Amino acid sequence: MKPVKKIPEFCVEAAIFCRRANLEDLLPVAEKQHRIKVADEMKEQGNTLFKKGKFKEAIDLYTEALAVCPLSARTKQAIYYSNRAECFLRVNDPQRALHDCNRALCLDHSMNVKVQWRRSRAYQRLNIDYPAWLDMYCIKEEWKSDKGDTSGVDFKELEGALREKVCIVDKEQNIDLERKAVDYL
């Protein structure tokens, strides 16, 4: 008897996505709008729970909102992923937060600053410092171009932790990461 090959998770996820997209194409517009409304109500309930510090319950509601919301409502989906990512950070699950941040950015790149901030924190908690620093750098540059300066935003905690690690790496590997990041961008 041949051993059964395990199907990679991303293949299963892609197949489910395609099946769901095909089924949603058959839905009338009114049904899609109703689903968006229901998903938004779940998001609002999740936001209320988040404000009360009930992060696991909020995660469940954002997950339900993602399941109900049509795939064609990309901006709405991105918001739910972004909110759920913040909850994952609050319950100390940076890997899942990183996953949700990447999904949100793929769905709607206009959410850049907020989601990159969360992704930077997730990377930092996973001790993946260089991408965390790159996200931080991009956030600051985007903020400067939009607002003129970064004085109104408190980057100090995360930036301090990252700079400390960057300096350690710098001394050990003799690499100027800041120059490298600017060159990369």
TrEMBL record:
Pfam families noted in UniProt: TPR_12
UniProt TPR repeat ranges: 39-72
Superkingdom as given in the UniProt entry: Eukaryota
InterPro entries (alphabetical): TPR-like_helical_dom_sf, TPR_rpt
Keywords: TPR repeat
Statement: the UniProt record of this protein carries the keyword Zinc-finger: no
Name of the protein in question: Sperm-associated antigen 1A
